[in-house]
Amino acid sequence: MGVLTNNLTLFRDGFATTLQLFLYSAVLSLLLGTFLAMLRVSPVPVFRAIGTTYVTVVRNSPLTLVFGFFVFAYPYLEIIKFDFFTSAIVALTLYTSAFICEVVRSGINTVPVGQAEASRALGLTFPQMLGSVVLPQALRSVVPPLVSTLIALLKNTTIAAGFSVSEAGAIRDSLSEQGANMLLGLTWIAFGFVVLVIPLTLLQRVLEKRWSVAR
Amino acid sequence: MTAASTPPMIRMAGVDKFFGPLHVLKDVQLEVPKGQVVVVLGPSGSGKSTLCRAINRLEPIDSGTIEIDGQPLPAEGKELAQLRADVGMVFQSFNLFAHKSIVDNVMLAPVKVRKTPAAEARKSAMALLERVGIANQADKFPAQLSGGQQQRAAIARALAMRPKVMLFDEPTSALDPEMVQEVLDVMTTLAKEGMTMLVVTHEMGFARKAANRVIFMSDGEIVEDSTPEEFFSAPKSNRAKDFLGKILTH
TM segments (chain A) (predicted)? Predict the structure, then answer.
């Protein structure tokens, strides 16, 4: 217990930063990922190619590399300067959206083609069809893999510790400087992540129940 | 009534369509004047569903022209969407939006496409559901309804756009026998009210009772084009005789 109580601020600030990284990146990757999925099912070949290329390149790159690019290489381009925290959000978002995109796309594939045909026959445009008919049904059918991807994102935030962001993954460094009991320290960090993941699991259960689409 | 002043509601000229090597529509010529109820008959694989789906370009054609109310079908895009809004379509498998209640199904396109205010759209949706006899099911989801009720909801959804013409692609083929009549009744009423309709069906009773004209297709061609009385009592082609022989004997 001592490891935790003696370092309460350290733990609190660390996990607060983790939570912030997670929330920003989760919202942004859900948006970007869904947008990429729309590109990938678009009737316009160029849009499909952009979506496919993005997923191929980003999904196949290690997250540390994506981070490294944003923290060390991107500044050379001298476009907009990001601080470490923002760079971490950008890296996590770019990386996670590739996975979200594929989850959403698999959801789109579960929606029967008749739903799209009925929308088109009624005069809905392609964006209207996606927004009002296809995506709502697609998202409902992929709640479990979507939440899994978000849980992976939550844990991936610890990579940011290696790139000067003091989130929960960085608590270990401070503990080891103090010479604290690492077994206990790491156990508490792990416990912290379990506590953060539980609400996501509950959210999944609630959404699955509420959104179960009878066909 | 001259052709120049009132164009036919549907005009197909020299329409050809291939599925790979399969020639599914062969030089189809068809004009449907306003207010006419046309029933399309034919054995399965004769191209009748493809013909129906080609009219609002759910199936793009390979050559020829299709016009709706004098307007040629544009390429996929906003203009085509606008044209489709005026063409109601009812599918064999209903295709109601599974995640929306019945009344929301009916309201969706008027609100999104016609920009009708939601309250007004809901009011007309309820009136339409009343008309097809399922107003009491308005708040249920499609999967909670019987097939016949779902198909009537789908007809209401199409009518909500106040279409100029209605296309029915085998509307009763997926229904249990006891539910066929309730759907045909709605369609018969619609026909009597003067809606221009093109109906692909196997319901000979409906063809006799509600149609002004019967088109018989075989192997992608329009083989006969006559009145119901003529077609059922004195079919001209052997293919039609053969077809009627098969379906009317049991």
Answer: 21-41, 61-77, 84-105, 182-203
Instruction: State the best of B49, B56, B84, B95 to mutate against chain A, taking most chain A CBs within 10 Å.
Output: B95
Confidence of residue A161 (pLDDT cuts 50, 70, 90): confident
- Minimum distance, in Å, between the CA of residue A97 and any CA atom of chain B: 25
CB count within 10 Å of CB A21 equals 25
Q: Give the rounded distance of the alpha carbon of A35 from its chain centre.
A: 14
pLDDT score recorded for residue B1: 47
| Cα–Cα dist A124/B121, whole Å | 16
Q: How confident is the model at residue B250, as a pLDDT?
A: 55
**Closest chain A C-alpha to B226 CA, distance in angstroms:** 29
> Closest by alpha carbon to A71, among A57, A58, A84, A89?
A84
Which chain A residues have a beta carbon less than 8 Å from that of B162? none
The secondary element (H helix, E strand) that includes residue A168 is none
A→B interface, C-beta within 8 Å: 43, 112, 114-115, 117-125, 128, 132-133, 136-137, 140, 213-215
Q: Give me the phi and psi of A54, to 5 degrees please.
A: -55, -50
Q: Are A94 and A87 in contact, with CB atoms under 8 Å apart?
A: no
Homologous superfamily, domain A2-211: MetI-like (1.10.3720.10)
Question: What amino acid occupies position A94?
Answer: L
Closest partner residue to A123 (CB to CB) among B84, B93, B97 is B84
Q: Domain residues of chain B, as ranges?
A: 10-96+164-248
- What's the complex ipTM? 0.90
Which residue has tokens 């849980």? A151
Report residue B249's pLDDT band, with 50, 70 and 90 as the boundaries. low
Instruction: List chain A residues with CB under 8 Å of B88.
Output: 121
Task: Write down the architecture of domain B10-96+164-248 according to CATH.
Answer: 3-Layer(aba) Sandwich (3.40)
